[in-house]
Amino acid sequence: MNSTPSRLRMALSCLIAFHILIIIASNYLVQLPFSMFGWHTTWGAFSFPFIFLATDLTVRLLGKQAARKVIARVMLPALLVSYVFSVLFQEGSFRGFDTLNQLNHFVLRISLASFLAYGVGQFLDIQVFDRLRKLPQWWVAPSAAMIVGNLIDTFVFFSVAFWRSDNAFMAANWVEIAAVDYVIKLAISLMLFVPLYGILLNAILRLLAGRQAATA
User: Fold this and answer.
1) CA distance 146 to 56
2) In this predicted model, what pLDDT tens digit does every residue of 113-129 receive, in sequence order?
3) Which PANTHER family does the protein's record reference (predicted)?
């Protein structure tokens, strides 16, 4: 996709902000477990697949290098902001600004786990998608990238965040929660986000084609 430098910077800034927003929301929602059909999971399973959708569209429209720039610029700010937000709203309730005066090891561990899982999962997603994006079947690349990226991201995150955690429930159930979390993410990604990827891609390409025709 041909873009002027100003449009490219604007697109990258919007993507960076979107990624940070989803990470903050997911780190908050992962602290809220619930049961689905008798299996333990968290609300974070429903929010995080948005990042893979954004990453795959970035690779398709702007290229692999642009997607890597987004990931690199997101990681540290997301770590800091998600830690602060999760401390203030730990386990779904506002704890007050005084909580920031003391290091919260439980939330810090979640934030560090998110940092590692996000980096590994997103860079792997980019590699898989970039290798497959030239296939004539448009749905193969986003499907394969989401399957692999979500798998790695989910189990890296839950193992780092909750293995022998101070939270007894999460420490005892993190493997089950991670497995159910992955299944939910996979179902959401394949049934919703892959079709949404196709719809958004076509809409963006038509919009760009219209603008190019208007300026020609």
Assistant:
1) 9
2) 888 988 898 899 999 99
3) QUEUOSINE PRECURSOR TRANSPORTER, QUEUOSINE PRECURSOR TRANSPORTER-RELATED
